[in-house]
Amino acid sequence: RRKVIIDCDPGIDDALAIMLACRSPELEILGLTIVSGNINGYQCAENALHILKVMDRLDIPVYLGATRPLLRDMVVAEETHGEDGLGGVKFERIEDVRYREGAVDFILNTLKMEDNVSVLAIGPLTNIALALQTDKSALSRMDELVLMGGAFKSHGNCSPVAEFNFWADPDAAEMVLNQLDRPITMVGLDVTREVVLTPNYIELLRQFNDPAADFIVDITRFYLDFHWEQERTLGCVINDPLAIAYFIDPSICSGKTYYVDVVTEGKAIGMSMVDVGGIYKKEPNCLVLTQVHARAFMEMFMTRLFPEHQS
Ligand code: BDR
Ligand code: CA
Asked: Which of 92-101, 176-185, 221-230, 293-302 has the lowest mean pLDDT?
């Protein structure tokens, strides 16, 4: 089994990512580290506990990290993820287990104590950048970083050119891409936009009569409406679980390595700049995924979460 820390900002699609990870025997989840993003960090941490409760995995520790971006004011995505970050479903507070503080220390201490740990980052990169600033040599002990963020040929979802995780903390994204000397994979909008949870899937989940399926139906209601109102699309893009799926089975996506930088000032702030032509004459720092086998992903997601409903 491969040891992972999942750095996240749950978040509706973060929830689906955590659920997939919980049902993947290839992964040993050492902890969830929480960053502010889709909603403030405190609420993200509460949401993480809920998700783990639904999956009966409250044994996985949750650590709250950065409650604001490195240098800028916080931006959240309430209009996409709801006032509580999980589609506005009113969940009861989990009292039996609580989250802890100190996500950055948890990441660094884990990397110092354990070998072969990878980080799957599906929120803004603030915690990872803080870990890099605090102890680069400890962070460099990580196996690899797979991150959901950025957009290469695809357009942005926060500005015409910027994807949310890079846009919410561009300084952190810029620092991680330029300073972390470990393999980085960018699972950006180019591939995640292809992964859509359609109303047919939602209908199927409704019929399963299973708590995890009901949870997905509940939290995606708001997200589906958002997609319909914004783009007149049926179904919702579920970005984050693709990063988990790719880590488990890299044959699901393919791409190419490039030098990637992030714009930290001006109108294009948060844009991922992929140096296709090698203009900067810099070593590639990132594998940029551009192709995805969306059906293979959906099959993986459904069969792992609901094995008893597969024919
Ligand atoms: C990313 O931004 C967040 O809203 C999602 O959780 C995902 O991590 C997509 O741009
Ligand atoms: Ca996220």
From this structure: 221-230
For residue 122 and ligand 1, the question of a CB distance below 6 A is answered with yes
Q: What is the pLDDT of residue 311?
A: 61
Measured CA to CA, the distance from residue 144 to residue 124 in angstroms comes to 17
Distance from chain centroid for Cα 75: 16
d(CA 39, CA 35): 9
Task: Supply 265's token pair.
Answer: 């000032």
Radius of gyration (C-alpha) of the chain in whole angstroms: 18
CA distances for 210 relative to 55, 60, 115, 196, 198, angstroms: 11, 22, 37, 21, 19
Beta pairing class for 27-34 and 2-8: parallel
Of all protein residues, whose CA lies closest to atom 10 belonging to ligand 1? 164
Nearest residue to 54 via CA among 174, 250, 218? 218
Question: 9 CA distance to ligand 1 centroid (A)?
Answer: 8
C-alpha torsion sign, points 192, 177, 158, 19: positive
